[in-house]
Amino acid sequence: EVQLVESGGGSVQAGGSLTLSCTTTSSVYCMAWFRQAPGKEREGVASSVLGGRVSYADSVKGRFSASRDYPKYTLHLQMDNLKPEDTAMYYCAASISRCTVQSGDGYDSWGQGTQVSVSS
Fold first, then answer.
1. Which residues pair with 117 in a beta bridge?
2. How far apart, in whole angstroms, are the C-alpha atoms of residue 10 and residue 60?
3. Whole-number average pLDDT of the chain
4. Alpha carbon of residue 33 to chain centroid
5. What pLDDT is attached to residue 116?
6. What's the average model confidence in pLDDT over 35-43?
7. What pairing do the DSSP bridges indicate for beta strands 114-119 and 10-13?
8. Mean pLDDT (whole number) for 67-71
9. Residue 19 to residue 9: CA distance in whole angstroms
10. Mean pLDDT of 39-47
11. For every residue of 56-105, which 3-state class applies, written as one string?
12. Exposed/middle/buried for 26, CB within 10 Å: 0-12, 13-18, 19+?
């Protein structure tokens, strides 16, 4: 298990942009972003496997971009053209064994979350 520290949430109007960052204390196989809106189930947003591909949920493809800063053990999530339906608590997660946006099962570590609010 690793510690995850998230930053970058906030409030924007629809069409705006935000960048989230998640920093760990060591290199980890997979880092990912999940989100959960009030009354809804948690859903995956983007996952990044060490040295490899990034996967996105269909709902954010073309608008969100995830990238890893390896020397700083950080995963960034650039969110553009934000929509009100993107409003949620965003959580960073890390895993030593799997990397998927389909489910949060199997992720070993979770951050405290950072709120993103998008107004219309």
1. 11
2. 18
3. 95
4. 2
5. 98
6. 96
7. parallel
8. 90
9. 7
10. 97
11. ECCCCCCCEEEEEEHHHCEEEEEECCCCHHHCEEEEEEEECCCCCCCCCC
12. exposed
Beta bridge partner(s), residue 35: 43, 90
Q: Yes or no: say if 6 and 116 are a contact pair by the CB < 8 Å rule.
A: no
Q: How far apart, in whole angstroms, are the C-alpha atoms of residue 105 and residue 41? A: 13
Question: Whose CA is closest to 18, among 62, 55, 65?
Answer: 65
Q: Which of 54, 120, 43, 28 is nearest to 89 (CA)?
A: 43
Mean pLDDT (whole number) for 57-69:
97
Largest separation between any pair of C-alpha atoms in the chain: 39
For tokens 């409003």, what's the residue?
87
CA-CA distance, 14 to 16, in Å (whole number)? 5
**Distance between CA atoms of residues 118 and 70, nearest Å:** 30
